[in-house]
Queue: 2 jobs
Job 1
Amino acid sequence: MVCILNFHVARALNISYIRAKHLFDLFESLIPTKGRNQGFVTLRFDDASVQQYEYALPILEKFNMHGVLAVPTKWIGDRSRLVQSRYQPMETWDKVKEFVKMGWEIASHSRYHRHDRITKGPWTKLTVKELHEEIIDSKRDIIKNLGIEPYTMVLPGITTAQNPITLREKRLICKQYSALSLSSNLKVFNRLGRNPYNLWAIPLHWSTDIFAKVEKITRISKNKAFWVIFYIHKISDDLSDPLTSMKPSQLKALVEILAADEDLNVVTIRQGVELGCPDQKVQVHQV
Ligand SMILES: [Zn+2]
């Protein structure tokens, strides 16, 4: 269960957590049975960069695949971010709307991405007002700009060590969202004792043997009925940029590998929960 990555993140092993009730139901329905090798894979694109619009949207569309776009809502159209960093957010919500049209899931990735000290985080240090901005107001932004209620909160921070959450944050998230996708390291793997389902979130960054790794991981996903969430950041031919996850051609090759595998379900987080527990009623939360 260790994924060694040669670029940007040397060693990363991560998991995601979805509300305990979902997890339990999901586990029950996904226990592998004889002759059935079926796993779930999710492609999660974090931070809503313009390159995700340029490359990920058309590439996934070609293979009739839907990803999850995790949007820091106040970054959309924030021109100052273009100047401050090499990260380029999508300029308008109209671009995000195209993902919705194509069947993607739009997740909240907070408002300001306050995941570390530089960004005035992490969340445990935020005031109640700031925390509400990140969790509740980001949801309101998505409803206002897209007319849809986000199902999932994707916690900002490349690992949970960067932005660990406590009961205060978890409670608020669970009140507002049906699923929480986060990243963490080996130490906290399945740390919630009541959570028997194996969700495995892996940041994908370019490395020479990325495809062999992806094939290996997806094989584990199928054989053990794991749900693997690959999360990807900027897509660019400039691999010297530390924000870059992979080249457009590599993303295309990766999607081809996943599409060619008939035993693999590529799902959004919402689809995964709903497929895993079809009786689950989607909860509507008031904001
Ligand atoms: Zn992020």
Note: The chain has a mean pLDDT of 76.
Job 2
Amino acid sequence: MVVTRRACVAGLAVALAALLAGAGTVRAAEYFVSPSGDDANPGTSDGKALKTIARAADMAAPGDTVNIAPGKYVERVKMPRSGTAEAPITLRRRGDGEVVWTTPEPDPPRFQDTYALCIEGREHIVVEGLTFRDCKAWIVLWESNRCTVRDCTFDGVRTYNALRINNGSFNKVLNCRFLRAQKQTGFREGSSWIPVPGADYIEIFRGSHNNLVEDCTFGRITHTAVSISAVDPKQFSPTRNIVRENVFTDPYWKCLWFHAGKHNVFEWNLCTGQAANFVQLESGTSIIRYNRFTHYRDSTNAQPDVLLRGAIRMQYDFAQRNRIYNNLFYDNDRTLTNNSFRWHVTDNIFKNNIFFRNRQTIFLGFPDYTTKNRNYFLSNVILQKEPGEKVIRLMRSDDFTLAEAAAKLGDLYRGNVESDPLFRNAEKGDFHLKAGSPCQDAGSHLTVAASAGQGRQVAVKDSLWFCDGNGLIDGDRIIVGSNKAVRIDKVDYEKHMLQVNRTINWKLGDPVNLVHEGKAPDIGPVEYEAE
Ligand SMILES: [Ca+2]
């Protein structure tokens, strides 16, 4: 057995942590599983490996690691106990080659039991480096918290909810590849544009809060790659979940569905290619920032109505008070759209975004757009092909150029710029700004201080722009007035109060922005830097 230095250090750290935690034992056992093993073995070495992951999971106590040799495993596993914060239980691949995990048939009747790995009512389980292939379903985190799934590959299921977090919080899905869900067999009867059977790669469901999906790649999907949803959004409110730094390529249907909940974050993602929509936005107080939405091509061929199809579709009564900023929308067939003309969609703010070379930019069909449904476009770059085009359509047919919108709807359309943003090489996906870009230092402030003060509690006019990391990642680094950057430790969205990590001074009306270069934030997702 090759023991790496890193493994030794990690093992020592676990043992030390267990000791410090006052655990009854400092033993952190290693179990070994191999297709050529035997469940009658002790499982304590390569030579005496167990045959099934299930047997090893039964034996594993907090702090223990189950090392799974490459090969194929056909079984279902239910985790019988939890780990602890200091001593998680880890299931991981050991050695080169794939650990392929699939499920036997027939499928059991109970929903949770159909998954290859059922983590129900548990905490601190780590799953690492495994390949789930052609399972009934992959992993369910059912009322389970603080579990981590990382470096795994997900390839093929026979169910709608491929990986589900149900009433679970502080779980993380990191650096995973989602290749394939259900095989599409046709289209819904009477709706020839809706693929069947539908499937979601990851469903963050019902009372699931503070979960993180980061650094994953997603392939084609017949419903939604990541959904944050509830059957009844009035009853369940999945809140403060973060989806970041993922790549969604040719999703065909949707990358993200914000269906329910508050203060969820979608940031630094790339959404590109064929889709019905990249984002379906039906919840409120979300942050959507620093994403690149590029090359949207309508997979439905404008079915059943062109009004439904665009990079972002906003709809229904909960789609209010979202903060959508510093994103890039480039070369999309259509960009912003909606189909809920009779709903109340208001106080969504689009700020410091670049909308460039799209065939259609803003279509918001809501009526009463100056009174009941007020949505703001502030300091964005908006240019299709040539200046002077009607880039804004409100209601069904009220068309405006940027200048007309600024003149007639000046409180809603302010400071937008009708210029080429001057990317280094947009065709090759290089969206860095060239010297002389009109985006440089042209962004408007996110918000301002609501009072003068000193200390660590900064009252701001609007706190919805900011995230304290939700217990998952570092909080936003911000600049308040002329202070050096500070980190946000806590956002109180009700009181619009930011708690920062050190004492500062500020004046009433001081600008509050995320960390930026130069005098002000740039427009778009990348701050200017010299070549
Ligand atoms: Ca700047």
Note: The first strand starts at residue 30 and ends at 33.
